[in-house]
Amino acid sequence: MRESLTEVIVGAAVVVAAAGFLGYTAQATGYVQSSGDMVLTASFRSIEGVSVGTDVRLAGVKIGSVTGMDLNPETYRADTVLTLVSDIPIPDDSSAVVASEGLLGGNYIELVPGGSFDNFESGAEIVDTQGAVSLLQLLLTYVGGGTSTE
To answer: Whole-model pTM?
Structure first.
């Protein structure tokens, strides 16, 4: 009887720990958003290397994540949904740039603040975007002497 009680307590502790890890993972990757978050949309020409859960950074500090991506069949652009913490005001003339952590690092979305006195409201669209730059395309341009075949 005493051994079965111990097994039940240990099993319950394992289930609680697993649920805690699952909750932390969902929040850290951006799959769960709190009610106070601000949601912005942006349309990119190319979001190569970006996926759902990718960081959104401002001055190198993570302030949110990518929570949705879809191809717009009319414009052939990648429409993204960015979920940011709401306590940081973002000027409404800011731009979103797909940046790289280095030669072998991953990509992330960097917000470059503008100079406007008005800020984005939740649901607004970032109009000024810059897509990912292909490393292969840059290398081919460098090897080709800077000439383009397009």
So the answer is: 0.68
